Model the fold of this input.
Amino acid sequence: MINITNINKFSDHRGSLFPLNFKDIPFEVKRLFLIKDVPKNCIRGNHAHYVTEQYLICTKGEIEVSLHDGKSEEICKLIPMQCVYVKNLIWDYQKFNTGDDELLVLASTEYNEKDYIHDFEQFLNLVS
Done:
C-alpha cells in the first residue's frame, strides 16, 4: 500500500533542482495545495475520499503518513522530497512532527466537500 518515492535532485553551485514530471503521477493533476504552519505533533487529514487520489510530497520537516485500506494500516515517515501516493477509498492522516513541516499535495479532482468521508466507521462499512 505504501510506496515512498524520492524526487530526483540535481545540485550545483547555484542550488538544487527537484523536478517532478506529471507523467510520473498516476492521475491527471487537477488541484494543488500546500499545508504549512501546523503545530508540532498536530494531525491533519483523518478522512478518506470517494473519488480523489492524492500525491503527498514532503517539502520540509518530517511528516508521518498513515494509510488504512479498511483491513490494515501502514505508517511511514516522509522527509523532504519524498512522496507517497494515496488512492481513493484509503483513510489517511498526516502527523506533522517538527512544527516546521510543509506538505505539498497534488489532487486528481477539484475540491468537492461531498467527496470526503469524515466518519471512520462509515468508511469501514463502505470498503468491507
User: Anything to note?
Assistant: The helical segments are 120-127. The chain has one domain: 28-127. Residues 28-127 form a domain with the Jelly Rolls fold (CATH 2.60.120.10). The mean pLDDT is 97.
